[in-house]
Design brief:
Elements (H helix, E strand, L loop, with lengths): L1 E5 L6 H13 L4 E4 L7 H4 L12 E3 L7 H10 L1 H7 L2 E3 L5 E4 L2 E6 L19 H13 L4 E4 L17 H9 L14 H9 L6 E4 L6 E5 L2 E5 L10 E4 L4 E4 L1
Parallel strand pairs: 1-2, 2-3, 3-4, 6-7, 7-8, 8-10
Antiparallel strand pairs: 1-11, 5-6, 9-10, 11-12
């Protein structure tokens, strides 16, 4: 099976529909979207029905979602209606098997441009991490999808110059740890990585809006560009465990 890999959507669901159609034409059977999709009432409330997507899109939450709305959508059944149209929200710590490929999801990330929301918000909590660790230990994923990346592993991710001052205010000065400035990410995801009983073949993330690859032993870490900056499709062949482009 081929999986299309999508970066941040930033509320442009028409663009998501176009890329999903393109992925279907390229032979993808499903897509994974790594957060900051646009889970907000302005885009996805019950009065704005979602057009059916040509292939299922499994999406996690980023930091820039309306997390309170997302919680209400799950409780009310609205998220079930999205799934019927092909947009499937994957909660933090969830695990899905597609054609024999186990995929683990852990959404959420630090804000670099606004205050953090710990409870029911953007932050990966200790409970989120513990749930993911337990799920991934019981059934080790072949692919892990997160919004940001582990910090301090040598992946070389960093924010733009324009965000540096605001990041210091909202992360470091607010008492949070975003990792080294030239190798930043989520310490919670670093702990997830360190505790995995078996490392995945692929770990995908967005958040930084750029394409970047880095391999650590058998694991390829892949930063996906935001869809409005993407130059082409990224596809993962689950049988061959190989990245392809179209």
């Amino acid at each position: 099976m081929k999986l299309a890999l999508f970066g941040d959507v930033h509320d442009d669901l028409s663009q998501l529909a176009r890329w999903t159609a393109r992925a279907a034409a390229a032979g993808a059977g499903a897509a994974i979207q790594v957060g900051d999709l646009g889970f907000t009432a302005d885009r996805l409330d019950a009065g704005r029905p979602l057009a059916r997507l040509p292939i299922p899109v499994l999406a996690l939450c980023g930091n820039h979602e309306d997390h309170a709305f997302l919680g209400r959508a799950r409780a009310s059944g609205l998220a079930t209606a999205w799934a019927a149209q092909g947009l499937i929200y994957q909660p933090r710590g969830s695990l899905v098997c597609l054609d024999g490929c186990r995929i683990g999801f852990l959404g959420g990330a630090l804000h670099s441009d606004q205050p953090q929301v710990a409870v029911g918000g953007n932050l990966i909590t200790s409970a989120n991490l513990a749930e993911a660790q337990a799920a991934f230990a019981a059934r080790p994923p072949d692919l892990i999808a997160t919004h940001s990346c582990p910090a301090g592993l040598g992946l070389g991710m960093s924010g733009t110059d324009g965000l540096a001052e605001r990041s210091a205010i909202h992360i470091k000065d607010a008492g949070y740890d975003g990792g080294p400035a030239n190798d930043c990410g989520e310490p919670a995801l670093t702990r997830l990585w360190q505790g995995l009983p078996r490392r995945p073949a692929l770990w995908i993330f967005g958040h930084f809006h750029v394409f970047h690859q880095h391999r650590i032993d058998q694991t390829l870490f892949l930063s996906l560009p935001a869809l409005d900056h993407a130059q082409g499709l990224c596809l993962w062949d689950t049988k061959a465990a190989r990245l392809e482009f179209a």
